[in-house]
What we know:
The protein is built from 8 helices and 12 strands.
Amino acid sequence: MSVILIADDEARIRRLVSDFLKREGHTVLEAGDGEEAHKMIHEAQPKVDLAILDVMMPGLDGFSLLRALRSEEPTSQMPVMMLTARAEDNDQLLGLENGADDYVTKPFSPLVLVARVRNLLGRTNKRPGGSEVFGALEINEKRREVKINGESVELTPKEYELLIYFKNNKGIALSRENVLNSVWGYDYFGELRTVDTHVKKLRAKLGSCGTMIETVRGYGYRFEG
């Protein structure tokens, strides 16, 4: 999963966001002001994949930190989400003009924020040419190609469709019935064991990346790339 930094001078906001992001499997770093966040972003190992910045922080505020990050080569392309209690259009426009990728206004739903983080990370994980990268796994739907550590993986048409369905529903628990209906079609009269059989074969072909397809006991499967 990803390393995410949350910078906010309100500890309760940091804890709230951190708790929900950790449930998604992310590693979360917390900073109480802009200067601390700036230092942590440049010193973090592994590197920060996404920063969530409060606008109204003491010292170096969120907009100033955003401009600094965009002007520095290591962080110029890092996705940044702005978090603020101010809802004025001018503030949102200023954030977006300075290079923010998304803007969330307080009060907010933690579940909605997590969903927007997921979407933002999904967009930035795409490589030129249409590839999406999940660790060692690379999927290119335009080329209908799957690679593990740069090596092509030969999948049957149904295995490929199954992988794409899991990938497009990343982080969502999918019942066997949903998988069967979505991949095989509502007019398919096969048994639910068909899903299990194909998942087993798909995992085997994906090797170490097969663990990304997690079993949801008594229900179905979930893709956690």
